[in-house]
Design brief:
The protein contains 20 helices and 17 strands. The chain is of the alpha+beta class. A hairpin with a 4-residue loop joins β3 and β4. The model has no long low-confidence stretch (mean pLDDT 82).
Length: 470
């Protein structure tokens, strides 16, 4: 009876109740949306980091990890023999890892050069799928090939920018005013992105510049493929050695820092010039069929090769593991803050309801309803009010997440800033069933806590005095 009575009581003043329900729903929609965005960012960063940068498991000579000296290698044949037999291993790739100075005819920059097998690297890494210009390392050439990141290409001055008529026509589909403003720059070429940006800023209106400058610069970029790059590095004997490669491809990930420092060459091309013996590598990277199998696979490898350092992804990159652990926690903090603020609105509504019903409570007590049941009834009213708003808010946020988890939300305006810290500018919101359980629990607790003060006020009523209240 108390449940039915409490439910009817919250709709006695429909306008006031609907305002509270709407406020709770809107607040929860904001909180759950924030949580889903945080989860989406963290999930993407973790997946991109594993797929493009660190893999699930890395195997090294322990001495190599101390200073990453070129002569601290491991024998790859015995390791690959084991990996071929382990269940849970999806792909693996052996790599040489050499620090070098890269020099072109215009600039120089430091690079970490990974010598890889193109076939096994394509199965393990997402880099071949991130090529934006040219191709990966497949193909036979007289001069060995190198694949570099977009940021490294800019630092080595391997990018020319030219505003062509075809680019202007393509941009005209988006904004006619943009195309006409760019017409005076048609045919101009630039050797650096900042020079192009300066001209765009001087030509375009501020609103057009803020919206389109980065997109125009990306559209105008042309990479100087087949340009020679001379790599200088130290051999195991301590001598400096140089070798020439030609740029065959440019890749781009969501991590600008990674793009600026890591390049790929064919393992067979790097071994002869590195001074190392065939079969000697610095690293074996492993991808498992499921991230949950990583601990067991790593344990199996470590039991066979106790003299090697076997590191799962969360040890290779502990900051990524930390982000993953804190993602749900940070999102839950947003929800708690929002519910804490909404609790005062619920308290106000319930207090008004209690003050208006003193005579009613006095009558109920006079005919035999004890104080515990009055307290329970007020608490149920508060929980029902909060829970109703919570259900509406969760439904709104679920619809939002379902839609944008497929289409993504593009924060392109801040793409450069996001990519500088390794996050994609396109976010796919993500939320789990456990998150919904936690939110439901918090909503019910909020309703119960918000009812304590109004219910306590009702408990202090003297039934005889309450009956005299008009």
């Amino acid at each position: 009876m108390l449940v039915s009575l409490s439910w009817r009581n919250i709709w006695r003043n429909q306008t006031r109740s609907m305002v509270v329900v709407f406020a709770i729903a809107l607040g929860l929609w904001g909180g759950v949306t924030s949580m889903s965005l945080i989860n989406g960012w963290v999930k993407q960063r973790m997946n991109d980091s594993i797929r493009n940068e660190i893999s699930h498991i890395q195997i090294h000579n322990p001495q190599f990890l101390q200073n990453e000296e070129v002569d601290k290698t491991l024998n790859v044949d015995s390791i690959t023999s084991l990996l071929d037999t382990l269940s849970g291993v999806s792909a693996y790739s052996a790599r040489l890892k050499i620090f070098s100075m890269a020099q072109t005819d215009r600039a120089n920059s430091g690079l970490i050069v990974l010598g890889v097998n193109p076939v096994s690297e394509r199965a393990l890494s997402g880099i071949p799928e991130k090529i934006i210009y040219g191709g990966f390392l497949e193909g036979a050439f007289k001069i060995p090939s190198i694949v570099i990141g977009k940021k490294a290409a800019e630092e080595l001055k391997l990018v020319n920018y030219e505003i062509t008529d075809s680019i202007i026509k393509r941009l005209e589909r988006n904004d006619e005013g943009l195309a006409s403003a760019l017409s005076e720059l048609a045919g101009k070429s630039y050797r650096s992105r900042p020079a192009l940006i300066r001209d765009l800023q001087a030509t375009l209106k501020p609103s057009l510049f803020d919206r389109w400058a980065d997109a125009i610069a990306d559209s105008c970029a042309g990479y100087r493929l087949n340009t020679p790059v001379v790599l200088t590095f130290q051999t195991p004997t301590g001598e400096m050695h140089s070798a020439m490669f030609r740029v065959r491809g440019v890749y781009r990930t969501s991590n600008t820092a990674f793009d600026a420092r890591v390049a790929y060459v064919n393992l067979n091309d790097l071994v002869p010039v590195s001074g190392l013996d065939p079969g000697q590598v610095h690293e074996v990277a492993v991808i498992c069929s499921d991230i949950r199998k990583v601990p067991s696979v790593a344990k199996s490898i470590a039991s066979k090769f106790s003299h090697l350092k076997i590191r799962p992804w969360d040890e290779v990159s502990p900051e990524i593991a930390l982000y993953s652990a804190l993602g749900d926690f940070m999102g839950m903090i947003y929800v708690v803050i929002i519910l804490f603020a909404l609790a005062f609105g619920i308290i106000n509504t319930m207090m008004m309801s209690v003050l208006e019903r003193f005579r009613e409570f006095g009558m109920l007590m006079a005919i035999g309803m004890n104080r515990v049941r009055v307290f329970t009834m007020i608490m149920l009213e508060s929980v029902f009010l909060t829970f109703t708003g919570g259900v509406v808010g969760v439904l709104l946020s679920t619809t939002f997440v379902m839609i944008f988890s497929h289409t993504g939300i593009d924060f392109g305006m801040w793409a450069e800033g996001f990519e500088a810290i390794g996050y994609s500018s396109v976010v796919y919101p993500h939320i789990t069933f456990a998150n919904y359980v936690q939110i439901t629990f918090l909503v019910i607790v909020t309703g119960m806590l918000a009812s304590l003060w109004p219910a306590r006020r009702a408990l202090k009523l003297n039934p005889m005095q309450a009956l005299r209240i008009e």
